[in-house]
Amino acid sequence: MAVSNTLIDGDRLWQDIMALADITEPGKPYTRRSFTPRFLAGRAYLIEQLKAAGLEVRIDTAGNLIGRRAGAKPHAKTIMMGSHSDTVPSGGRFDGIAGVVAALEVARALRDAGIELQHNLEVVDFLAEEPSEYGLSCVGSRGMSGQLTNAMLDFTGPQNERLGDALIRVGGNPAKLSEAVRKDIAAYLELHIEQGPVLEQSKTDLGLVTGIVGITRLEISFQGAADHAGTTPMHMRRDALYAAAQAVTAIREQAEALASEPDGYFVATVGILTLEPGGANVVPERAKVIVDIRTGKREKTLRFLESIDAATQDAAEKASVERSNFKTLSDTMPMDCDLGLLDDLAKSADALGHSHLQLASGAGHDAAFVGQLAPAAMVFVPCLGGRSHTPEEWAEKHDIAAGAAAIFAAVRRFDERTPVTNQTHNSI
């Protein structure tokens, strides 16, 4: 790690990350689930810091927390930075949080140095990037990109609460979601821990993300009959689990086949398998399989879905059950990061003395949705052992500061090289 001359205050950045880490469910480090009281406490802390940085603070109708600094040109578009402050259960201190705080620190560094941009600048904490208890991830960035549908708002979570009602609880307004859709973004930049081992193992300071995988989540359900496990002959059973087991095997085999092809990344995971009624001495009547599909090539997802559709129909027939459901729960397109912004980041890293390499993201991010509205790019920083979504998740202070410094410099490069154009939609 080269010693660089940067306006980023690494100590101040680190203090904010650790302060947010302390806002966690008791006995469950580090847990701050979206829509919960702990999540709102974390946001209260962020609101204080955004206001202290001189930013105008609001929550848009999609529940995104936004701090804004006006640029020199009254009708300029907006350079946006950010990530998310919610966590998975027993998650880490850095996933999402480092990106929000790095964006905040960039805004503070610009203020401290008296640097006025031509463009407007925004720091965003996107609502519920992690899969929420309502069965949906990237709620805020979906809303900002116009992809949070009425059907999604009807998803239910704890105590059968609708997502739309939960959105109201955190300051959003589902009746006016169209007001959250943005057409004024000039560029979007996001810092994130890598969540993989490449940077650490190669001893590289920064990863410049070339693209983000598309993520499709699929639900497959089978309906059989609950019978006594001791008195029902094997050939007379309508065992929903038998069909589900065949489905899981087909999912693994087809995913391995697609992953072995040379043209692009592909993975598929069965992370949820539920059975009813769930008795040790009862033949399962119902089985539900949730599949997480990730690839940088859309056509691979379509081929996979076609194959699994046929395989699960065959599995249901073989098990003498019905395939009662085969539906897509959510579907995100792959996104290529903007080459111009990647060049800004590379030149900035070089000027700061930080080594860098290009790599793709196998995890989803809010940038995948914002990137459908405007040029977008991401910076990865190393994390210990490549581990994430665990209390052991760790990133070094100097690495996060290096990533924030690269974004700071890239923001200035973009602002200087990009002609100011009038925004078509003013979000304030």
From TrEMBL:
Residues 211-317 form the Peptidase M20 dimerisation domain. InterPro entries: Amidase_Cbmase, ArgE/DapE_CS, Bact_exopeptidase_dim_dom, Peptidase_M20, Peptidase_M20_dimer. GO terms for molecular function: hydrolase activity. Keywords: Hydrolase. It comes from the Bacteria. Signal peptide: none annotated. Gene3D superfamilies: 3.30.70.360, Zn peptidases. The keyword rRNA processing does not apply. Pfam families: M20_dimer (PF07687), Peptidase_M20 (PF01546). The keyword Hydrolase applies. Belongs to the peptidase M20 family. This is Zn-dependent hydrolase. The lineage of its organism: Bacteria, Pseudomonadati, Pseudomonadota, Alphaproteobacteria, Hyphomicrobiales.
